[in-house]
Amino acid sequence: KMRIFLGAGLVLALPAALHAEPLTFDAALERTAREAPSLKASASGIDAARSSAIAAGRLPDPTINIGIDNFPVSGPPALSFTRESMTMARIGLEQAFPNPAKRRAERTRAQAGISVAEAGLAVEAQNVRLETALAWVDLYYAKRRLAQLQLLDQSLGDLQATVSARLASGSARPSAALEPDQLRAAVADRRSELAADVAKAQARLARFTGDPQADVSGDPPILEVDRAQLVAGLALLPSLQALDAGVSAADAETELARADKRPNWRVNTSYGRRDPAYGDMVSVGVSIDLPLFAKRRQDPMIAARASEAERARLLRTAGEREFAAALDGDLADHAMHHQRLMNARNTLVPLAKRRAELDMASYAAGKLDLGSALLSTLAFAEAEVDALAREADVARDAIRINFTYGEMRP
After folding, report:
1. β-strands 214-216, 21-23 pairing
2. pLDDT tens digits, residue range 328-349?
């Protein structure tokens, strides 16, 4: 009855995991590439930048002017449209011509905006792929750890029959019948923790794949970690390319500020209609900007944009150093986790297993109490669960390193 109760609790706690559609590692990544809303949002940002670039560097729209000139408001011809020879209805057209350097700078800035948007998409795609891969691996190993505790629960059921037989023969004390149930309760607490890990990993995987019942299928990939190759490819990281795009955008802003020191000009023409007795008039004119106060207007803006460009370059240098340091740190963690995994596989688990076997043999021979034997059994199960956790750490490290610094880029 106890086993049925615990099994029913597990089913209630993990309904999605038991009825989910299984996804292989590669299938999860492919589904994420199609379904992730953040990637679609970033793609829309690129479309917006490209649409904006179409208008960059174009001539501004012409301006139409409509009015009445020289309308008298005093004297004998006051308030009359026909008694003053200079009164006329005017319609005019004006076209501004920004200087060519400014138009080129606007086009350059627009292209830089596209590059920034594309780099942002690459960074987001890399992050989404990495988080999906980690969620998949976390779910895979959480389920394996949970299954390992299930085996312990089954062995406790077999041990209960042995205890019952000893009680019937009078070779065991009555309180010994409670010890398997006590251990089973402790295992149930541990199982609840692992069940929560399964549910959380599944929720993360569902977030990126869009499948609320996503489950894992198959084995995780085996990824090699090559430090020399990773270091050589640092400059190609999407995050650093995004910083490069930021430098280009800042340079474009600087050139746009410099272009303001060059004069813009405008052409205007107008037609004035007067009383037929006086004849109509046509006017043509040209306006030219005079940047005479550059020290207080354009030069400060140029200096500001140049400082921002220098800031972008320094951030790019700092970013490269940060990634280089982060890579070394991740490689150190990976080496440490690999050593811990080897220690668990070669030493800790075999010792825990041997101790559990010896203690159970001693219990069977009547040389050890049941409680001590059960604790050794639990320690063996925990050692195997811990070994799986260490294996998960190694797998997570390999995925994080390769997806962040290596060839597995979007």
Report:
1. parallel
2. 999 999 999 999 999 999 999 9
Give the Cα separation of 176 and 248 in Å (integer): 76
Distance CA 235, CA 232 (A): 8
Q: Is 394 exposed, middle or buried (0-12, 13-18, 19+ CB in 10 A)?
A: buried
Return the SS3 of 366: coil
Q: Each residue of 47-77: b (16+ CB within 10 Å) or e? A: eebeeebeebbeeeeeeeeeeeeebeeeeeb
CB 115 within 8 A of CB 245: yes
DSSP tag of 263: P
Please tell me the distance from the alpha carbon of residue 81 to that of residue 95, in angstroms, as a whole number. 29
Please write the tens of the pLDDT for every residue from 244-292: 999 999 999 999 999 999 999 999 999 999 988 888 999 999 999 998 8
SS3 281: strand
> What Cα–Cα distance (Å) separates residue 205 from each residue in 14, 29, 43, 68?
15, 10, 22, 70
Task: Give the whole-angstrom CA distance, residue 90 versus residue 67.
Answer: 5
The pTM of this model reads: 0.80
